[in-house]
Write a structure and sequence with these properties.
The complex is a heterodimer of chains A (265) and B (392). Chain A is of the alpha/beta class and 265 residues long. Chain A starts with a strand and ends in a 7-residue tail after the last strand. Chain A has 8 helices and 11 strands. In chain A, α2 crosses α4. Chain A has a single domain, classed as Thiolase/Chalcone synthase (Peroxisomal Thiolase, Chain A, domain 1, 3-Layer(aba) Sandwich), CATH 3.40.47. The mean pLDDT of chain A is 92. In chain A, β1 and β2 form a beta hairpin. By secondary structure, chain B is an alpha/beta fold. Chain B has a single domain, classed as Thiolase/Chalcone synthase (Peroxisomal Thiolase, Chain A, domain 1), CATH 3.40.47. Helices cover 31% and strands 19% of the residues of chain B. Chain B is built from 11 helices and 14 strands. The model of chain B has no long low-confidence stretch (mean pLDDT 95). The chains are: A alpha/beta (265), B alpha/beta (392). Chains A and B meet through α3, α4, β5, α5 and α6 of A and α3, α4, β5, α6 and α7 of B. β5 of chain A pairs antiparallel with β5 of chain B.
């Protein structure tokens, strides 16, 4: 048994969906170092105190469900695994916590698992649970973990979620501009994987590749880059996608089957 | 070859290494657990005078490495100390490109992040990323395979072992150095202090008087290999693992323990065994009123009629809650218990609580020959993880 991609939601500093991406991110950024994502307007008492990153995670899952034409009930329960990845999204809460007089509100959110926890609560996801920290290879790892969980019958579907935010720590990211040239583009992206006929081909250590189209079109999205590629592939109607990623000297890749066409691009 | 759905492939735990408040090597750690050494003390490394609680499992002095120098980042330093201990017991006898590193942490190099906000330079900023210590470890080990950082909060050390086992099963690596770490620093002490999770008294897992946890620091690593490739002299095997999300609260466990139960049943199914086969349980056992009650109820449901006869311990009374390191330390403790034929006691447990009615190994180490062991973990964000281990 293999795995296939059944839905992709993409929110970036350029707008919603792959159609919002410019042809050339560097030119379109016009010198801006960070392309921010606004705090999603989710009206709920439960979200009154939630961080922007948490709301972006929820919004990305909503976008994925809309793109796939699915209702929330389709992913609810123990049969759905949640795999969350970020390189940077905990930074905002760290800065808030360090500047706050009381840590009661901000401290739990300094753990990356809290963002995933908010998403799990909102959508009732109570299956297998893995959270990885790192850049694009960590998302490749998460997609592999999702395909493995599906292949082994340890879940019936898997939600792979990435959130990257930079605004609150922009000064720190500016120091890395030589290794991570701007623009940094805030992104919340989500892929839904389900069982399929084609086994995923995972290379935990892959050969060097040229920068992906995702980087040229979206800019620096760190861990979200593979899901940007996936969104582009799905929007183009490609039956499979080869995703690569590199971070801190490591490169990884995965080839995944892509099912059908989006209900909404 | 077809395999039972949900079943995972067992991997060998070849060797282990630790850095803890109870000792900076495996033998000292084990001896301290069995002889009742108290790893909790007044915190000296940073300011705590403005906090409600200023005690924890602090490592007072780091030893030198056999090769190389300790880095400034304390999280990386603890990982390298654990690796130093591990490599004294086993060699990395594989192509470096096939050696993976998978480590779990709740807060990574957060102390470096705090420092980076006040200092210039890209190195300081990079050090604040939560995945930096894992890369520092891989560099020191000359491991050129995949480097993964897992962050399922205080369940991280269990999730990391599970992901490491999966890498071996998928033939993505031939050896995996897996484990967890976290550092006791002002950042984390201030946070838990604000949440009022810390006790001013002794940590008393499962005791009627339990009133909260104390934090500790440490690092723990194991060397994992495919069963068929591993040397015959080994610590034991990881038979099964599973994780789950509570989906109920970001900073408190599900009151019914449904997520934990799902993870435990998943790990047992992955191992191909039932609850009746479990000889010993290493509980998360934080010493908070809610956790210990929930965990007891879950174990009662999963272990069934034998629940009262299965020894259950928690080592957090001895060294504090070491967060990302805790689950790996507890897995190692299980395997040592099987090898040494003795189960360490639950330090701090004296007065039974009607809501916690299992056999918590009070007072003294207990001679036993556990073969199949269950280790449970929970963390912020509703994370649950369970491991099923087999001793030698």
């Amino acid at each position: 048994m293999g795995a296939q991609v059944a839905g992709v939601g993409l929110l970036t500093g350029w707008g919603e969906g792959p159609g919002a991406l410019p042809v050339d991110a560097v030119a379109a950024a016009a010198g801006r170092a960070v392309l921010p994502l606004a705090r999603p307007a989710l009206d709920s008492e439960r979200f009154r105190r939630a961080t922007r990153e948490c709301l972006l995670g929820v919004a990305a899952v909503n976008a994925m469900l809309a793109e796939a034409g699915l209702e929330r009930a389709a992913i609810r329960g123990e049969g759905t695994a949640l795999l969350f990845v970020t390189a940077a999204a905990y930074g905002a809460s760290n800065v808030e916590f360090l500047g706050a007089r009381s840590g009661t509100l901000h401290f739990p959110y300094t753990a990356p698992s809290t963002l995933a926890g908010e998403v799990a609560i909102e959508f009732g996801l109570t299956g297998a649970y893995v959270i990885l920290v790192g850049g694009a290879p960590a998302t490749i790892d998460a997609l592999w973990q999702a395909s493995l969980l599906l292949a082994q019958g340890r879940c019936r579907r898997a939600v792979v979620l990435v959130v990257e935010t930079f605004v609150e720590c922009e000064a720190l990211w500016r120091r890395a501009r030589w290794t991570l040239p701007p623009p940094l583009v805030e992104t919340a992206a989500c892929a839904l994987l389900e069982a399929g006929d084609t086994a995923a081909v995972y290379r935990a250590v892959a050969a060097p590749t040229r920068p992906a189209a995702a980087e040229r079109r979206a800019g620096r999205t760190l861990a979200a880059e593979p899901l940007v590629t996936l969104a582009l592939a799905r929007a183009a109607g490609e039956p499979a996608a080869r995703l690569t990623g590199s971070w801190r000297g490591r490169r990884a890749s995965i080839e995944l089957a892509v099912a059908g066409a989006p209900a909404r691009v | 070859m077809s395999r039972t759905p949900g079943r995972t492939r067992a991997v060998a735990v070849v060797a282990a290494g630790v850095a803890t408040p109870l000792g900076l090597d495996l033998d000292t750690f084990w001896s301290a657990l069995c002889t009742g050494v108290d790893g909790i003390s007044a915190i000296e490394r940073f300011r705590v005078d403005d906090l409600r609680v200023g005690r924890g499992g602090e490592i007072k002095k780091l030893r030198t490495l056999r090769h190389g120098h300790l880095p400034r980042c304390r999280a990386s330093a603890l990982l390298l100390l654990a690796a130093d201990d591990l490599l004294a017991r086993a060699a990395l006898t594989a192509d470096p490109a096939r050696v993976a590193v998978v480590v779990g942490t709740a807060l990574g190099g957060v102390e470096e992040g705090e420092r980076a906000l006040g200092e210039g330079g890209v190195r300081a900023a990079a050090g604040g990323l939560y995945d930096s210590p894992a890369h520092a470890l891989a560099e020191r080990l000359a491991a050129r395979g995949p480097v993964l950082t897992v962050s399922t909060a205080c369940a991280s050390g269990a999730t990391a072992l599970g992901v490491g086992a999966d890498l071996l099963a998928a033939n993505a690596a031939d050896l995996v150095v897996a484990g967890g770490y976290d550092v006791l620093c002002r950042f984390v002490m201030r946070g838990f202090d604000a949440l009022r999770s810390l006790t001013r008294e002794r940590v008393r897992p499962f005791d009627r008087r339990r009133s909260g946890l104390l934090l500790g620091e440490g690092a723990a690593l194991v060397l994992l290999a495919r069963d068929a490739d591993a040397p015959r002299v080994r610590l034991g095997r990881l038979l099964g693992h599973a994780s789950s999300s509570d989906g109920s609260h970001v900073a408190a466990p599900d009151p019914e323990g449904r997520g934990l139960e799902h993870a435990v049943r998943g790990a047992l199914a992955a191992a191909g065994v039932g609850g009746e086969a479990v000889d010993f349980v290493s509980a998360h056992g934080t010493g908070t009123p809610l956790n210990d009650k929930i965990e007891t109820a879950v174990l009662r449901r999963v272990l069934g009629a034998r629940a009262g006869a299965v020894p259950v311990n928690s080592i957090k009374g001895a060294l504090g809650h070491t967060m990302g390191a805790a689950a790996t330390l507890e897995a190692i403790m299980c395997l040592l218990a099987a090898r040494e034929r003795v189960i360490p006691p639950t330090a701090g447990f004296e007065e039974p609580d009607p809501a916690c009615d299992l056999d918590y190994v009070p007072g003294a180490p207990r001679p036993a020959r556990p073969r199949l062991m269950l280790s449970t973990s929970l963390g912020f964000g509703g994370c649950n993880a369970a491991l099923v281990l087999e001793g030698v």
